[in-house]
């Protein structure tokens, strides 16, 4: 199985994937890591010897052109799955359709509650006592696609957005790797089936 991972920030979720692959716990190839801007996640990929690319919105005339460039760049690596690991951009319906049910996103809240860019802040502001994270397929909406896995994280009385997000991210890194491992297992079983059918 081949994956492309997209990042925008510190890349700790990406690091957990890189570490699991290096430890032989995730049977897949990371074909490339891409980002919408230079970031620590790209540096982590480079340090691991994984090919990287940038597709920056500012380099394109408009949003559709950026989406087409990103779509073609991802497609050029011929991935089975694309993992949005803290990729803070919304992609358009055409890109989602091209990779239908093959783009996985991780979101730091229990969807369908608190979608969008500020899932942790919004949950805290609402006063929920339990929040968490969701790993899901990307569809044409914002954080609305089919849910693959979730984990709950309690909100503590003295939590700030930062402390809560850090505790969520510990669970997020674990569940993201676990979800990708399940997809890799199904992918391997499907490939074995195809091989024995032929
Ligand atoms: C994660 O919590 C992700 O769900 C959110 O941003 C964070 C990314 O963290 N959208 P990192 O870049 O993987 O460290």
UniProtKB/TrEMBL annotation:
Which of the seven top EC classes does this enzyme belong to?
transferase
- Entry EC no(s): 2.1.2.2
Which residues constitute the catalytic centre?
107 (proton donor)
Q: Which residues bind N(1)-(5-phospho-beta-D-ribosyl)glycinamide?
A: 11-13
InterPro entries the record matches:
Formyl_transf_N, Formyl_transf_N_sf, GART, GART_AS
> Which residues does (6R)-10-formyltetrahydrofolate bind?
63, 88-91, 105
Q: Does the keyword Transferase feature in the UniProt annotation? A: yes
Q: Where is the Formyl transferase N-terminal domain?
A: 1-180
Catalytic activity field: N(1)-(5-phospho-beta-D-ribosyl)glycinamide + (6R)-10-formyltetrahydrofolate = N(2)-formyl-N(1)-(5-phospho-beta-D-ribosyl)glycinamide + (6S)-5,6,7,8-tetrahydrofolate + H(+)
Q: Which UniProt keywords apply?
A: Purine biosynthesis, Transferase
Please indicate which residues carry the site annotation Raises pKa of active site His: 143
- Does the record bear Transferase in its keywords? yes
Look up the record and give one Gene Ontology term from the biological process aspect: 'de novo' IMP biosynthetic process
Task: Give the record's family classification.
Answer: Belongs to the GART family.
Query: What's its job?
Result: Catalyzes the transfer of a formyl group from 10-formyltetrahydrofolate to 5-phospho-ribosyl-glycinamide (GAR), producing 5-phospho-ribosyl-N-formylglycinamide (FGAR) and tetrahydrofolate.
Checking NCBIfam families in the record gives: PurN
Which PANTHER family does the UniProt entry name for this protein? PHOSPHORIBOSYLGLYCINAMIDE FORMYLTRANSFERASE
- What is the name attached to this protein's record? Phosphoribosylglycinamide formyltransferase
What organism does the UniProt record list as the source?
Answer: Rothia mucilaginosa (strain DY-18)
